[in-house]
């Protein structure tokens, strides 16, 4: 039985990935600051503390793979100076802990698979970003670049590394889609800004399959955009959700850019930024998306 360590294992992707791994016969170890709080008897919980840079040595020794999902939620709070520092540190310092552990503890880890984000890219409406494009210069891009650089050091230890630059994950259980759906419960399909800004997205089922694929496919290595092959803008995304979830029982409303800036501060830049990212590289490895179009994704999420 192969063993997978997951950081951030109780989050949206970590929870779904854990379930899939258990179904496929893997042992899962979730790293937590409070492992005694773990309630899933099928999963082992082990201690780590990013602040003190401590980690359970036995967990590291048992692992064949590490899936690194840990990081403070970018959209949870306004980006104050303190929150920005927390967002950066939660990613880079956790990566540093993984690197140090793999460097200092005898282990059999073959591959590290790390989350990243399409926030790495800037705004360019006529170009679908590929993995070779340089990072942008705003806060989220510099944070994402630092995140990738901090985990990339594991390759110096003869470990394979896969990085998934992930778009907005569509799930009923959390993430941005859950926020988009809230006004729809009251009959309002709320479009942000002009609605013309492109949104890189991926269905929760597909992102979990990508992580699993990175585990089972030994040839998979490097950076990949984890996004649907069919990008849509904010208006198309919201209206697809509204039509499938509510039929005709909704009213389209717009939240102007200035209102978003007042409510969200600097974070509004990311909501209004238009980004397209190419999925060609991951598709060339043979990966096929279960939900490649926004309507297929919304049908699966809301027609049940």
Set down the secondary structure blueprint:
Blueprint: E1 3-7, H1 12-23, E2 27-32, E3 44-49, E4 54-55, H2 57-62, E5 65-68, H3 81-104, E6 111-117, E7 128-129, H4 139-152, E8 160-166, E9 168-170, H5 176-184, E10 188-192, E11 198-199, E12 201-203, H6 204-216, E13 222-226, E14 232-233, H7 234-246, E15 251-255, H8 257-264, H9 268-272, E16 276-277, H10 280-283, H11 294-302
Parallel strand pairs: 1-2, 1-5, 2-3, 5-6, 6-8, 7-16, 8-13, 9-12, 10-15
Antiparallel strand pairs: 3-4, 11-14
Helix pairs in contact: 1-6, 3-4, 7-11
Description:
The chain has eleven helices and 16 strands. It has 304 residues and is α/β, with parallel strands linked by helices. It has a domain at 3-168 and 201-227 and 276-291: NAD(P)-binding Rossmann-like Domain (Rossmann fold, 3-Layer(aba) Sandwich). The strands form five sheets. It has an eight-stranded mixed sheet with strand order 4-3-2-1-5-6-8-13, sandwiched between helices. A two-stranded parallel ribbon has the order 7-16. It has a two-stranded parallel sheet with strand order 9-12. The protein is globular, with a radius of gyration of 19 Å.
Query: Mean pLDDT score, rounded?
Result: 94
Question: How would you classify the helix and strand content by structural class?
Answer: alpha/beta
Note poorly predicted spans: none
Strand order within the widest sheet?
4-3-2-1-5-6-8-13
Helix proportion range: 25-40%
Task: Give the CA-CA distance, first to last residue.
Answer: 35 Å
User: How large is the radius of gyration?
Assistant: 19 Å
CATH-derived topology of the domain at 3-168 and 201-227 and 276-291: Rossmann fold
CATH evolutionary superfamily of the domain at 3-168 and 201-227 and 276-291: NAD(P)-binding Rossmann-like Domain
- Biggest sheet details: 8 strands, mixed
Second rung of CATH, namely the architecture of the domain at 3-168 and 201-227 and 276-291: 3-Layer(aba) Sandwich
Apparent shape: globular
- Number of continuous helical runs: 11
Please write the string of helix (H) and strand (E) elements.
EHEEEHEHEEHEEHEEEHEEHEHHEHH
Q: What's the CATH first level of the domain at 3-168 and 201-227 and 276-291?
A: Alpha Beta
Tell me the total number of β-strands: 16
- Kindly estimate the percentage of residues that lie in beta strands according to DSSP: 15-25%
């Amino acid at each position: 039985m192969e063993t997978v360590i997951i950081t951030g294992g109780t989050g949206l992707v970590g929870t779904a990935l854990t379930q899939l791994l258990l179904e496929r016969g893997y042992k899962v170890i979730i790293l937590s600051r409070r492992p005694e709080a773990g309630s899933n008897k099928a999963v082992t919980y082990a201690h780590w503390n990013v602040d003190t840079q401590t980690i359970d040595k036995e967990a590291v020794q048992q692992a064949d793979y590490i899936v690194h999902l840990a990081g403070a939620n970018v959209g949870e709070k306004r980006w104050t100076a303190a929150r920005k520092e927390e967002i950066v540190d939660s990613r880079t310092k956790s990566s540093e802990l993984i690197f140090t552990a793999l460097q200092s503890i005898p282990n059999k880890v073959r591959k590290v698979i790390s989350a990243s984000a399409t926030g790495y890219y800037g705004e360019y409406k006529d170009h679908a970003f590929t993995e070779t494009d340089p990072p942008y210069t705003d806060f989220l891009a510099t944070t994402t670049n630092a995140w990738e650089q901090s985990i990339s050091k594991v390759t110096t230890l003869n470990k394979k590394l896969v990085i998934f630059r992930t778009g907005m994950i569509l799930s009923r259980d959390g993430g941005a889609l859950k926020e988009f759906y809230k006004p729809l419960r009251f009959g309002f399909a709320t479009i942000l800004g002009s609605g013309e800004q492109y949104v890189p997205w991926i269905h929760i089922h597909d992102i979990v399959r990508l992580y699993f694929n990175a585990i089972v496919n030994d040839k998979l290595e490097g950076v990949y955009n984890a996004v649907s092959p069919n990008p849509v803008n904010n208006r198309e995304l919201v209206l697809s959700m509204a039509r499938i979830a509510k039929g005709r029982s909704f009213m389209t409303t717009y939240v102007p850019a200035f209102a978003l800036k007042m409510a969200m501060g600097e974070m509004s830049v990311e909501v209004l930024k238009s980004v397209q990212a190419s999925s060609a590289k991951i598709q060339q490895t043979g990966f096929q998306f279960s939900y490649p179009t926004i309507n297929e994704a919304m049908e699966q999420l809301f027609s049940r």
